[in-house]
Design the sequence.
């Protein structure tokens, strides 16, 4: 039986965007258009990878661009103020004590951006317990050279900036990553005419445009016509070298996301991909390549599965409101300043950061987890 062609008009409807970009494109857009004309359409994951991490034009490769801040395209829990770093420092302090207060304790941060979380956490550690602060060695793994340079300048001797986690080996420590998993390139899939298709980026009328290619069944079950969703990044590839860094460790991932059943519910028919630009999340994914953030909700079930396959232990995800409230227990009894209380409210209120963000803890090597 011949397969009916996928309905491209319904792809346009599912995305709620025109099928091809109508804006004048960027230098990166011109480069991608020229490559597609030469070599053919590319998977969306390749497009997203180039938009975010192209060495010269990528969204995260240009430290001079104002991206993560109130003046930029979006804010994170770190932008709310130093309290986020303090609460994570309290969490790690509890873990450090439960594991017999080792004299050397390594923190590895991913996606450190401009180093604010590192500064906040190191500063808070010294206030919480000087012996803990003395034991800390803070590392940042940052694959982008321009960002490594910025971090070295900003953090000076406070942290060691690595190009890859392969360079780190230690007995005990913790990994922290706030809003990193949502920034990893991923494929897009589309269900139309009873078949699954992978969404590609092609060129039409000299502009970037969507196209499709048939693919194996991405999800089994009853999905409606024009169901659009995203696959997961290769979490195992990310986690595998990280888990090699530590003999014993706590890994803490904080991000927006869902479990697999919710993410792939038939009613979630437009997926979760979105692009942030100037504090709005409705920019067209094919517009402004390299000049806007591209992100999607994290499939926490897929992260847990990848971790378990690598021998790590995964604990149930907890929303940020509950998670930070547990971290904050002792601090809340110490009469925090009104400014800190305001930050705490923003970080934990369900309508702000409290209910959209989740914390996932993993452990390696059976340490005492000491939580909640
Ligand atoms: C949304 S930003 C992080 C924001 C920052 N953590 C904060 O909370 O303000 C995502 C960052 O993850 C970084 N990133 C992506 N993949 C990475 C990897 N494999 N290792 C380390 N950093 C990575 C990107 O370069 C980017 O700087």
Sequence:
């Amino acid at each position: 039986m011949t397969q009916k062609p996928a309905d491209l008009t319904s792809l346009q409807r599912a995305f709620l965007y025109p099928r091809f970009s109508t804006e004048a494109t960027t230098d990166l857009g011109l480069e991608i258009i020229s490559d597609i004309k030469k070599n053919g359409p590319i998977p969306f994951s390749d497009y997203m990878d180039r938009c975010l991490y192209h060495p010269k034009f990528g969204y995260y490769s240009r430290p001079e661009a104002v991206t993560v801040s109130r003046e930029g395209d979006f804010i994170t829990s770190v932008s709310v103020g130093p309290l986020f770093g303090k609460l994570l420092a309290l969490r790690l302090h509890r873990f450090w004590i439960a594991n017999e207060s080792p004299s050397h304790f390594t923190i590895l941060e991913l996606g450190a951006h401009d180093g604010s979380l590192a500064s906040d956490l190191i500063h808070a550690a010294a206030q919480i317990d000087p012996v803990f602060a003395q034991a800390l060695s803070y590392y940042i793994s940052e694959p982008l050279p321009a960002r490594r340079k910025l971090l070295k300048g900003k953090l000076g001797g406070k942290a060691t900036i690595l190009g890859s986690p392969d360079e780190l080996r230690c007995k005990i420590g913790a990994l922290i990553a706030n809003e990193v998993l949502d920034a990893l390139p991923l494929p897009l899939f589309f269900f139309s005419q009873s078949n699954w298709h992978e969404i590609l980026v092609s060129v039409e009328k000299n502009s970037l445009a969507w196209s499709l290619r048939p693919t194996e069944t991405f999800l089994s079950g009853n999905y409606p016509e024009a169901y659009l969703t995203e696959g997961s990044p290769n979490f195992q590839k990310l986690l595998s070298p990280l888990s090699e860094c530590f003999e014993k460790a706590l890994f803490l991932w904080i991000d927006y996301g869902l479990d697999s059943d919710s993410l792939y519910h038939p009613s979630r028919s437009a997926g979760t991909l979105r692009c942030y630009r100037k504090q709005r999340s409705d920019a067209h994914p094919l517009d402004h390549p390299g000049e806007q953030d591209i992100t999607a909700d994290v499939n926490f079930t897929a992260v847990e599965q990848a971790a378990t396959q690598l021998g790590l232990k995964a604990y149930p995800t907890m929303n940020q409101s509950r998670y930070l409230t547990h971290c904050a227990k002792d601090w809340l009894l110490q009469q925090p300043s009104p400014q800190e209380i305001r930050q705490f409210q923003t970080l934990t209120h369900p309508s702000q950061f409290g209910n959209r963000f989740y914390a996932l803890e993993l452990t390696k090597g059976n340490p005492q987890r000491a939580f909640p």
In short: The longest helix spans residues 83-98. The domain at 77-184+234-273+296-364 is CATH 3.40.50.12710 (Rossmann fold). The pocket of S-adenosylmethionine is lined by residues 60, 68, 76, 78, 110-111, 113, 117, 141-144, 178-180, 183-184, 238 (CB under 6 Å). The two ends are 57 Å apart (CA to CA).
